[in-house]
Design goal:
Blueprint lengths: L9 H11 L19 E5 L14 H6 L7 E3 L5 E3 L2 E7 L2 E6 L13 H12 L13 E6 L2 E6 L6 H4 L28 E7 L3 E6 L12 E6 L3 H9 L5 E2 L4 H4 L7 E14 L9 H10 L2 H7 L5 E3 L9 H6 L15 E7 L5 H15 L2 E7 L5 H5 L5 E7 L7 H9 L13 H12 L4 H17 L2 E13 L3 E2 L16 E2 L1
Parallel strand pairs: 1-10, 1-11, 14-15, 14-16
Antiparallel strand pairs: 2-3, 4-5, 5-7, 6-7, 8-9, 9-10, 11-17, 12-16, 12-17, 13-17, 18-19
Length: about 500
């Protein structure tokens, strides 16, 4: 069913178009010499946060541009499949991977076992570690065309972990100095050739790629944090592929140009359990009871989201099937209690979610102040526990294709993304059990038990599960629509 078109103020369109003027200008190599099409113009939402280091969340940009690759990739079900490794076998704490022959990095050097070990060791010894390695001690050793990865304890998800873009394999040149520079150092069908800070990047087709040759001659990327500007780029033809179109803009676009997919991404209110008002579990319960998630879905997301029953949403259908009633603490009286809620502007809906929550919590008796900034300016304060509550749009299976890693990162006592500052023995035990259980039905059951343990503390109040809205211009062929946000432009993508 088509959404009725709504008029957008001319001033908004003009401002958005002005913002994009020149961003997607022709490079002079816009059209391929062999007539296969032109360079693909991509409008991304978030600019690089760490200079495109693969050891950060910037790794997912490298993956979405098909420039950096991993030993393993995941199929739609989350099962491990060959990539830079062709096969693997397990022996206790060790997994041995056979490295694909005939692969070269973009600087012309060969992919070898030593190169793989170099990348994995750099990730395993980084401070902080990539999120996928939270709680994991990992070492790697090369022997000819094989690499053996050993963990401190048995880990049934080593192949899935190695599929994370944060464990991409790069050429030795990328690791000179303290930072990791991926320019000209990947193995994918597109070579990253230029990065202009947080404004743009360029990639060219890598003709010596080991797999199928890319159909497009290159990719021109512009980072456009403003959601209205991104939508305008699709509407005016300034961009071919537009990432994360805001819900507020989706209805005014040609519905044939947008794709909507349920994501493993949950919009959650994290409550500070260590200090302040929400150190009191009964007041956390009061906050949970005050929240009307359905009104947020209808009012802010215009129905393009799903009300949350737990931390894991419809992108993981088995979660609802296994979930049971969670034991809750009785709500206390929040009257007159002052709290500060933080969130960020990079996702266009979050400030509006914050404003709606402010009204709902104030109606319940809380006094609520909002602190809304760009993500790069607020993340450190959130992780340091400077807010009473924080609204976060969080991917739940982004790293390994398995939600245990997300749950551990966000809610374990030593989790690297523990915004709620949670330290609970029962939660830690449930998370350890889930992390150590073999893949399959038993692991899924343990994951849901861990989710229940977290929800029982009210350290996090899941509100809704988002859907990704991606814009593809009429001439775009083969763009990926990936709920895990790992793929976007592939070797098969081109513009007619």
């Amino acid at each position: 069913m088509r959404v009725p078109v709504r008029l957008v103020p001319l001033t908004a369109v003009t401002a958005a178009s002005a913002l994009l003027t020149g961003c997607f200008a022709s490079t002079g190599a816009d059209r391929a010499a062999d007539g296969e099409g032109r360079r693909i113009r991509v409008a991304h939402m978030l600019p690089p946060r760490s200079g495109l280091s693969p050891l950060s969340d910037d790794a997912f940009k490298l993956s979405r541009w098909s420039t950096a690759e991993t030993l393993v990739k995941l199929n739609p079900e989350g099962d491990a499949r060959p990539a830079l490794a062709t096969e693997w076998k397990r022996s206790g704490r060790s997994w041995t991977f056979t490295i694909r022959e005939g692969v070269t990095f973009h600087d012309g050097t060969k992919l070898t076992g030593d190169a793989v070990v170099n990348s994995l060791t750099r990730a395993a010894t980084a401070s902080p570690k990539p999120r996928i390695l939270d709680g994991v001690e990992l070492t790697a050793k090369a022997d000819g065309d094989t690499v053996t990865v050993t963990t401190a304890v048995e880990d049934p998800l080593v192949p899935q972990r190695l599929s994370s873009p944060q464990l991409s394999i790069l050429a030795a040149k990328a690791y000179r100095g303290k930072t990791v520079n991926p320019v000209g150092a990947g193995t994918g069908p597109f070579e990253l050739t230029k990065v202009n800070g947080t404004s743009s990047a360029a990639l060219d087709r890598y003709d010596a790629y080991w797999g199928d040759k890319a159909k497009a001659p290159g990719i021109d990327v512009t980072f456009v944090p403003d959601g209205t500007a991104r939508a305008a780029a699709l509407r005016t033809g300034e961009a071919d592929i537009v990432e994360a179109i805001p819900v507020s803009q989706a209805a005014v676009l040609d519905q044939d140009l947008i794709t909507e997919v349920p994501m493993p991404r949950t919009n959650t209110l994290y409550l500070n359990t260590e200090k302040g008002v929400f150190k009191d579990a009964s007041l956390r319960a009061a906050a949970r009871e005050a929240i009307d998630a359905e009104s947020i879905v209808k009012g802010v997301y215009e129905g393009r989201a799903d009300v949350a029953e737990g931390l894991l949403g419809p992108a993981l259908p088995w979660a609802a099937e296994l979930r049971s009633t969670v034991k809750r603490v009785k709500a206390g009286d929040p009257s007159g209690k002052s709290i500060t809620i933080g969130t960020f502007t990079d996702r266009a809906e979050l400030p509006e979610v914050a404003a709606t929550l402010q009204q709902q919590l104030q109606k319940a008796g809380f006094k609520v102040k909002l602190d809304v900034r760009e993500y790069t300016n607020i993340e450190s304060d959130a992780l340091a526990g400077e807010f009473d509550a924080f609204i976060l749009s969080r991917a739940t299976v982004l790293d390994s294709g398995d939600p245990a890693a997300y749950l551990y990162s966000d809610f374990a006592s030593d989790g690297s993304f523990n915004i709620a500052q949670l330290a609970d023995d029962k939660v830690d035990a449930a998370l350890s059990k889930a992390s150590g259980t073999a893949a399959g039905d038993a692991r899924r059951k343990a994951v849901i038990e861990a989710e229940a343990a977290v929800l029982g503390t009210d350290a996090a109040v899941p509100m809704l599960h988002e859907r990704v809205i991606q814009g593809d211009a009429a001439g775009v062929v083969g763009a990926a629509h990936d709920p895990r946000e790992r793929e976007l432009v592939t070797a098969a993508t081109y513009v007619k």
